[in-house]
Amino acid sequence: MKKTLLKFVSLLSVGAMAMPLHVMPIAHAEDQVEITFINHKTDWAGDGTWDRYLEEFNAVHPNIKVNIETITDYAGQVKTRMNSDQYGDVLMIPGDISPVDYATFFEPLGDKEELSKKYIGLNDRSFEGVQYGLPSQMNATGMVVNMQVFRDAGIETFPTTPEDFIAALKTIKEKNPEVSPLYTNYAAGWTLSNWDFVRAGASGNYDFTNEMTTDKEPFADGKTMNKIYKLLYDVAKEGLIEADPTTTDWEQSKVDLANGKIGVMVLGSWAIPQMQAANPDNAENIEFHPFPMVAEDGKQYLPVGGDYNYGISVHSEHKEEARIFIDWMVNESPYAEDNGGLPALIDGEYPAALKSIQEAGITLLEENPAPEGKESLFSDINNESELGIGSTDIEKQRIIDAAVGNTSETFEDMMAEFNQRWADAIEVVSGN
């Protein structure tokens, strides 16, 4: 299969650090084997967490040395490197790689049906029954909230509808003008994709993404994608976001939310421990809630899906050792728990934050896999349309720019254009 240049390559600079990491023993090997694990956990590179993981790993697997390389703009930079053969031995698979290209870049990890007896979340990184990645954890996507900010404004219950959500944010702004009721993290380069990841939960439809591959107007008024983007537009237009979105700071936003200077951000459950760590004294104020939208059946759903998947480079000279490391990370390490997610293991324990959501009657929703032979259809249409659903922030930034008056575009015109681009992409990819 010919390797082609990946789309949406970022031109942002890399903030990369490397730390040594040790991995498992190899049969019939006296000397250490070295592998490189490329990932996005820059915070762990600086706070000693990777050191702790490697110490625990080496207690069991002393003959493998893992060199850890972390990248700040991970999604953009690792795809650039994947156009060469220098992208490590183990890496987190970027979210917008087309399934048809998995075999070009990644080593097969086994039969999907067989692996599904042990793991959940295998849909995203499989193709034609072959598994190319294992989830580092399962994430819920929704609202990371400092509920004390809401309580200080007299709001005791997190809103469940867009209308009530906007009203709550307005109340917060009125009570405390110094607070950013919602923080978009516009400038971070990846965070706005979370507005796309809530789509299945907002709809309550287990086949939402599959059905988008035949819907030529998914952004039409009244449909889920339109409602999600309209909420983003409305909160920005009403001045309920940060003062200057173009200068947002991801690391500082975690501190500000923990300290009550931000009310809510749309993120995955993985963000909860990071917010809590920013101010341990106020950790109990950080909660996780579903996106404020009720499905047609009157229920609220919380979408769950695989976070970054571990993959093995086809160019690795130590694939066996790389697989040992992946298996240890998924089966033995506390990675999912430490990151506020669900373990990929079927019998894994849910974290406390998501247990409370279950107790509240919120249904966890993992989307159905694509039909056989259509595993790459959504990805192909998405790439052809260049809308970057779940992969790039350009169009979400465009919505915010229009809302705050930086451009003269209207929301209705943008949605009409999105529909046209999506319909054209379906025709190109599917011939329909």
Automatic annotation (TrEMBL):
Coiled-coil positions:
none
Q: Which Gene3D superfamilies match?
A: Periplasmic binding protein-like II
Taxonomically, the superkingdom here is: Bacteria
**Entries under InterPro entries matching the protein:** Bact_solute-bd_prot1 (IPR050490), SBP (IPR006059)
Pfam families reported in the protein's UniProt record: SBP_bac_1
For this protein, the record's SUPFAM superfamilies field holds:
Periplasmic binding protein-like II
Alphabetized UniProt keyword annotations:
Cell membrane, Lipoprotein, Membrane, Palmitate, Signal
In the UniProt record, the signal sequence range is: 1-18
**This protein is called what?**
ABC-type glycerol-3-phosphate transport system, substrate-binding protein
The scientific name of the source species is Globicatella sulfidifaciens DSM 15739
